[in-house]
């Protein structure tokens, strides 16, 4: 609601200030005293028309029309020799918006909220009383955007159906993957087996190194035995024999270790055969696919319930609109029944409203 209007250097108004109260405000005056210019000044701010500079006062000066709204927002339209813009003030914040062509800046249009339906000229017929029922319905649809609501409801229903189909396919796919998962080997046991095989490989590598060292020692012993055959002297031979006996004992110990190494090699071979059987890569791929599909099913379920709530809210709003149309038809019927057939002031016949 407009509470104050300030007109400066616009047609016949040099500096005019008008306070407006709630309800109906009537401006009276002699002909050609500037009453229509007030309306033109308002429309210049609201619709950025007329263009050009013909409306500016002949005595010069900056032209400015300022509208103060009940919410405290102040909108000014300014035209000078160098400036052509809007000023939008919300509290202490001032925003300057350029006026380009015949367009009104969107923040200004939203703040004023005075579309063409809000304007009634002196010679215009009574608002919505002379129009046909289809025109009345068109105006109401334009006010509440009923066509957009129907289109949005259709899109939401289509999205819900599509989401339900995707959810059914996803549930079916999830069930099949769960069945496949039951036939796969136990991943925990396989992981433990892999760790055991890796540890066995390390042990085998260490024993192979020790085995190569034992072979080298055996070769040395054999060379020493050949050398003993060529040695002379009993005492020296006795010492050599004692050393050979000690070496023989070491050889027996090494042979025992070699047997253990061979056993470990056989265990590693069996572990490698086990690992070469089932391929673990497809198992990991199936697990990843199951996790991704579970996340997608959860997102689709959340989206489905959110869209369902939106559809319910729009259906309630549409029901309220239908109730309003019923009230309108009741008002039309009451008008036709209770309104006089002729105007009490001028005697001309009053139009009858038609129900759509």
List strands and helices in order, with pairings.
Layout: E1 2-10, E2 13-19, H1 35-47, E3 63-69, E4 74-79, E5 84-90, E6 93-98, H2 106-112, H3 133-144, H4 146-183, H5 187-229, H6 234-275, H7 280-338
Helix pairs in contact: 4-7, 5-6
Protein architecture, described:
With 356 residues, this protein is of the alpha+beta class. Helix content is 60%, strand content 12%. It has 7 helices and 6 strands. Strand 1 and strand 2 form a beta hairpin. Helix 5 runs antiparallel to helix 6 (234-275).
Low-confidence stretches: none
How many helices?
A: 7
Nearest-integer average pLDDT: 78
Structural class: alpha+beta
Q: What is the CATH first-level class name of the domain at 2-124?
A: Alpha Beta
CATH architecture of the domain at 2-124, please? 3-Layer(aba) Sandwich
- SSE pattern: EEHEEEEHHHHHH
Largest sheet: 6 strands, antiparallel
Strand elements, count:
6
**Radius of gyration computed on alpha carbons:** 49 Å
Inertia-based shape: elongated
CATH level 3 topology of the domain at 2-124? Rossmann fold
- Spell out the CATH superfamily of the domain at 2-124: P-loop containing nucleotide triphosphate hydrolases
Kindly estimate the percentage of residues that lie in beta strands according to DSSP.
Answer: 5-15%
Overall helicity: 55-70%
Give me the side-by-side strand order of the main sheet: 2-1-3-4-5-6
